[in-house]
Amino acid sequence: MKLLNVQESRELDRLSRDKYGIPSYRLMTSAGEAVARSCVREFFGAFLRPLLVVAGKGNNGGDGMVAARRLKQDGARVTVALLARAAELKGDAARALAEWKQAGGETEEIAGTGRPLQTASGAGLIIDAIFGTGLNAPVSAPAGAAIDLINESAVPVVAVDIASGVNADTGAIMGNAVRAALTVTFGLPKFGHISYPAADCCGRLEVVDIGFAPQALAEIAPKGRWLELAEMSSLWPTRAAASHKGMFGHPLIIAASRGKSGAALLAARGALRVGAGLVTVAAPETALPGLTTACPELMSEPMPEREGHFAAAATASRLGAVLSGKNVLVAGPGIGVSADTKELIEYLISEGAAPNRPLVLDADGLNAVAEIGCRIVLRAKGPVLLTPHPGEMARLLKRGTAEVNADRIGAARRLCEHTGAVTLLKGARSVIASPDGAVYVNSSGNPGMGTPGMGDVLSGVLGGLLAQGLAARDAMALGVFVHGYAADRVARRLAPVGFIAGDVIEELPRALADATLGEIGRPPCGPMTGL
User: Is a pLDDT exceeding 80 seen at residue 59?
Assistant: First the structure.
């Protein structure tokens, strides 16, 4: 599903109004009435008590007042708490307030900081219409105090368009934010709805059509995507009946060090389980024993080593011959960080990523890039895929982990801009940023994935998909989704916590078939309804 940023959302409004002749107040009326319908459908039992609409002075407040008028006309007891003076309202918001008053609606004006919100705790339902998607500064009084009282009331909250206090572009919380049970948004979801930490504030998300011009959306051509099961089949190439393993690629997994051979095994098995034709592991010689015994389908290449790690110069010389016939490189799982590691990663970026040979960098490969400087990735002649978790991203960007997590979309975009690489920021609702400006947010995955080796599996999955000819961005999107989706299936079958990376590997073929061929059926995925 497409995602809008704030600028695109504003442009959708403007084009629908100014170019395609849809009156703005018609859109406001449709929005407010949609919110009212959702309240009746989802919280009808709450109507035994009064309803409270907390409205700001902008168009979001106008939407809330339309909802109030519609609910009052349907027989509900409704009060509007206006966090401004009536004279401050302009345009459609002023019209919505006037029509609310003409309908006999009761309004409590709360301006400045001296008068608290009086009626929140006695309400059966609160409609949050304080701020819309345009909030880009920390919340201040009286809105901040109102948000606190709404949250303290323990009353169900329906947010109009987005929970007040949420940054719609980044998912950051701007000081404090309303914790909604349901958010009703218009046209398309925004990044802030589905990105943490704000996703916890939006509750269940309902997307409704309020009559935006379809031509306006086509003109905007948003590049944001919410990755869901239904979209995956379009990314998967069909296999001919008359095919053989030589047609499905051959990734080279450059991984492991003394004591960390398991990382190479997990990555290699991940590549096999998504259909790579052949897989070879290149590892320090003393790290190889047992790998092919554990997985006899693998091939292996022993590499020169120094103190249990790759010996960079000698390994680079040896790789010159080994690279022949390999169409993807995956480097980093379990290799450790040392002077040799940095030299090897620099070689792989500069020499290994040939025009038609992608390079996936993960784990210690990313830590080496962070020490060298992430702009080294610009030297690559072919596509590069970077897969940091928040700590690795912080090292790559020279920022704090908390800062990365506060704006995950911005962090992914920045690393993509600095490196020219397709970038994945792993974690809950993983973010993919592509050099063409596309930003994807993943819907699959669960907290049980916080266990060793999950990232190694993903790096192998990406290598296996790239080996089969998928473009870098498509391989990243399909790989990240299927990896998380396989873990979701395991969590449902085994338990939410306690499954391991090997369990996910074994589930990959079924998850991939379900996602791309629809052979197994479609369980619910993602928090959205009404799509």
Answer: yes
- The predicted-structure confidence for 95-105, as pLDDT tens digits, reads as follows 999 999 999 99
How far is residue 310's CA from residue 187's CA, in Å, rounded to a whole number?
53
Q: What is the pTM of this model?
A: 0.93
Note whether 483 and 507 are within 8 A (CB). no
Q: What values do phi and psi take at 136, rounded to 5?
A: -140, 15
DSSP reduced 3-state for 101: helix
- CA angle 183-184-190, nearest 5°? 80
Look at 183 and 239; give whichever has higher pLDDT.
Answer: 183
**Rounded Cα gap, residues 385 and 406, in angstroms:** 23
**CA neighbor of 151 nearest in space, from 126, 116, 184:** 126
CB 334 within 8 A of CB 257: yes
Yes or no: say if 188 and 157 are a contact pair by the CB < 8 Å rule. Answer: no
Query: Residue 441: helix, strand or coil by DSSP?
Result: strand
Distance CA(431)–CA(352), nearest Å, equals 26
Amino acid (one-letter) located at 461:
V
**DSSP SS3 for 153:** coil
| Degrees to nearest 5, angle at CA 67 with 64 and 70 | 155
Residue 114, pLDDT score: 41
> Residue 442 and residue 422: Cα distance in Å, rounded?
15
In the chain, the N- to C-terminal Cα span, in Å, equals 9
Other CB atoms within 10 Å distance of the CB of residue 448: 20
Please name each of the domains of the chain with its CATH number: 2-222 (3.40.50.10260), 245-520 (3.40.1190.20)
Q: Do 360 and 465 contact (CB within 8 A), yes or no?
A: no
Residues contacting residue 441 through CB under 8 Å, at least 6 positions apart: 3, 191, 194, 195, 224, 225, 226, 227, 409, 429, 430, 431, 432
**432 HSE (CA, 13 A, CB side):** 25
Of the listed ranges 10-14, 211-215, 353-357, 479-483, the one predicted with least confidence: 353-357
Q: Which two tokens stand for residue 426?
A: 């792993």
Band (pLDDT 50/70/90 cuts) for residue 122 is confident
Within its chain, how far is the Cα of 523 from the centroid? 20
User: Residue 388 is which amino acid?
Assistant: P
Give residue 116's pLDDT band: very low, low, confident or very high (50, 70, 90). Answer: low
Give Cα 438 to chain centroid, integer Å.
12
* Nearest in space to 230 (alpha carbons), one of 527, 516, 528: 516
Burial 101-119 (b: 16+ CB within 10 A, else e): eeeebebeebeeeeeebeb
Span 398-436, pLDDT tens digits: 999 999 998 999 999 999 999 999 999 999 999 999 999
How many CB atoms are located within 10 Å of the residue 207 CB? Answer: 17
